[in-house]
Amino acid sequence: MDPNTATSLQDGLVAWLTPLADKGQEGILRAVELMETEAPLVVKELLRWHFAISLIWFLIPMCVAIVMASYLKKMWAWAISVADDTEGLSIIGGTVYTIVAGILISVGLSTTNWLQILVAPRLFLIEYIANMVK
User: Fold this and answer.
1) CA 58 → CA 64, 71, 99, distances in Å?
2) Cα–Cα distance for residue pair 10/16, rounded to 1 Å
3) pLDDT tier at 2 (50, 70, 90 boundaries)?
4) Helix (H), strand (E) at residue 83
5) To the nearest whole percent, how much of the chain has pLDDT over 70?
6) C-alpha distances in angstroms, 67 versus 14, 73, 86, 91, 95?
7) How far apart are CA 66 and CA 103, in angstroms?
8) How deeply is 22 buried, as exposed, middle or buried, from its count of CB atoms within 10 A (0-12, 13-18, 19+)?
9) What local confidence, expressed as pLDDT, does residue 126 receive?
10) Which helix (H) or strand (E) holds 123?
């Protein structure tokens, strides 16, 4: 092969690849700029989403426990007015209420991510990313 032909092929290839490389570099720079502008918004939305979900899963068991306590109080008052012997009722009712209330409160307290997001959002993000990597 003629050295002039090889040089002209290299020059042609460089001339053809240079615009492609420039376009690729420009695309990468635009993507980085987009990530720099959008990343804080994405992080805020992620924090809001996990805050809302965690708060909902915290409030539902607490509300159910409150409603259950009110209902059991009314039921207990009715049972006392009807029954002659309330000792057996108090043991059964108290045990059932304690077990159910304990389960509801433990479920509610186990979902306190909303508190962590409110107090230490960066720590929550670090733990969230660590869990995603696992």
Assistant:
1) 11, 21, 18
2) 10
3) low
4) none
5) 87
6) 76, 10, 23, 21, 17
7) 13
8) exposed
9) 84
10) helix 121-133
Say how many C-beta atoms besides its own lie within 10 A of residue 118's C-beta.
Answer: 14
Return all residues near 64 (Cβ < 8 A) that are at least 6 apart: 104
Angle, vertex CA 86, rays to CA 82 and CA 90, nearest 5: 120
**Contact status, residue 50 vs residue 128, Cβ threshold 8 Å:** yes
Residue 28 has a pLDDT of 78
First to last CA, the chain: 56
Average pLDDT, the chain: 77
Q: Which tens digit of pLDDT belongs to each residue from 71-111?
A: 877 877 777 777 666 566 667 777 777 788 788 778 777 77
pTM for the predicted model, two decimal places: 0.55
98 residue type, one letter: T
pLDDT, tens only, 53-64: 888 888 888 888
- DSSP-based three-state secondary structure for 134: coil
